[in-house]
Specification:
The protein is mainly α and 430 residues long. It has 21 helices and two strands.
Length: 430
């Protein structure tokens, strides 16, 4: 496919195209926020966010799922509306205590709010909706190309970024390093689930996406993002296991040999660079950076009402380590409790867990199994961080709520998935 034809194929025509385009715009806004300017990044993200909202308000399909899961979905939807109303009309002290512009921008752009609106994805697609997943692959390829183009600049800036791990200043500390050193390139990394769909795309497209994901892993390791590094490695192991389990004996032996060689090579690279490129993650390997923050949360989050209902979308707690009111906490499930309480966390976890288990064990195709794995992993990720993001990953996870509960998709074979959902490939498989 020529570049011109590829770009023309990105023109949105279906509801999923528009939603994916809105997520692409939002992702680019996150990149521009760091690499270009804060104002420009904010504007681009606002365009993407309202584009998404316009689509979901104008599209509705019948959803079918077990009664208990439907109740969880409805409960989460209603509670999301309540939280929005509470923010604008009840928590007025947030507007008084903080500049109005800052409060509004936190609401419309911040990672605290917009991810919750992805819950309306199941209402957009019916249980038999033939979603064009080849468009999702095109978005992933486009992001991968952007990522690879900007990677040399981000990598150079990262390895030459001056900071102190123990600095108390806002500039030049570790937080400044992980936020700004890579020029925001992390938002351009394609969704990892695309690697699970190797069976449904050409090897060339899959390999380009793989290069971007591996490069992002190197960045993550160098920045000593321990939780993200471990989870990414787990995804690679699950990817290997899923394809190995579906291979014949000869294929299993080939996959085992390949894994052995790759692990040995990775170990040798890590050991040889442990005093240089990987020195930061070695230094932080056993550092406890969570216990003190979590103790502060438990201490100042004591009332039953706080635990049940949360403190609102811009709620805070006092952190004794930072000596200030904080709007976030690094532990994902506590972050959800802070903002929306157990009234949100429990049905959220139940919805993803039950749907994921059903999707993995009852599906006849690798496509649904991979989505189920991501749904289950998203629950596991709630400890190291894992808070829902306004991203392609959580588009797939909420789409999985429908697909993992649809007999129509569960019963499909891999070939039927290919023929129904991946009908417009970028490069035809040979």
């Amino acid at each position: 496919m020529s570049i011109n034809r590829f770009l023309k194929s990105l023109r949105p025509q279906q509801s999923e195209h528009h939603i994916l385009m809105s997520l692409l715009i939002y992702s680019l806004g996150g990149f521009f926020y760091i690499s270009v300017s804060t104002a420009f990044g904010n504007v681009v993200q606002l365009v993407g966010a309202f584009y998404y909202l316009w689509i979901v308000l104008n599209a509705h399909k019948e959803t079918r799922m077990p009664v208990c899961l439907r109740l969880c979905l409805v409960m989460l939807s209603i509670w999301t509306f309540v939280l929005v109303i509470r923010m604008f009309f009840i928590d007025t002290n947030l507007i008084i205590l903080r500049p109005f512009q800052k409060a509004v921008m936190d609401f419309f752009i911040g990672f605290r709010v917009w991810p919750m609106f992805l819950i309306f994805i199941p209402y957009v697609f019916g249980y038999r909706h033939k979603i064009d997943m080849s468009y999702f692959v095109k978005m992933g390829l486009l992001l991968a190309i952007f990522f690879i183009i900007f990677f040399p600049f981000a990598f150079y800036n990262m390895v030459n970024f001056q900071f102190s791990l123990y600095s108390a200043n806002e500039e030049g500390n570790y937080q400044d390093f992980i936020s700004n050193s890579t020029l925001g390139i992390g938002t351009l990394c394609p969704c990892f689930i695309l690697l699970f769909w190797k069976k449904y795309m050409s090897f060339k497209v899959w390999f380009i996406i793989l290069v971007a994901c591996v490069a992002n892993l190197f960045i993550t390791i160098h920045m000593a993002r321990r939780g993200t590094t471990v989870l990414t490695l787990i995804y690679f192991v699950l990817l290997w296991y899923l394809y190995t389990a579906q291979s014949r004996l000869k294929g299993k032996l080939r996959m085992l040999a390949m894994a052995t060689v790759m692990l040995a090579s990775a170990y040798m690279v890590f050991v040889s660079l442990s005093d240089s490129f990987f020195s930061l993650i070695v230094e932080r390997a056993e550092a406890d950076t969570r216990s003190g923050v979590e103790r502060s949360f438990y201490k100042y989050f004591s009332s039953q009402a706080d635990w049940l209902f949360g403190r609102g979308l811009l709620g805070t707690y006092y952190d004794e380590i930072f000596g200030e009111q904080r709007f976030s906490i690094e532990t994902g499930y506590l972050f959800i409790i802070l903002r929306a309480g157990l009234l949100y966390l429990i049905p959220y976890v139940m919805l993803l867990m039950v749907s994921g288990i059903k999707g993995y064990f009852k599906s006849n195709n690798l496509f649904i199994k991979s989505i189920a794995i991501f749904m289950l992993m998203s629950v596991l990720e709630l400890y190291p961080w894992g808070y829902p993001t306004f991203s392609f990953k959580f588009f797939i996870i909420w789409l999985g709520v429908i697909m993992c509960n649809s007999k129509y998709f569960l019963s499909m074979s891999d070939q039927e998935i290919q023929n129904v959902l991946f009908v417009k490939p970028i490069i035809k498989k040979r």
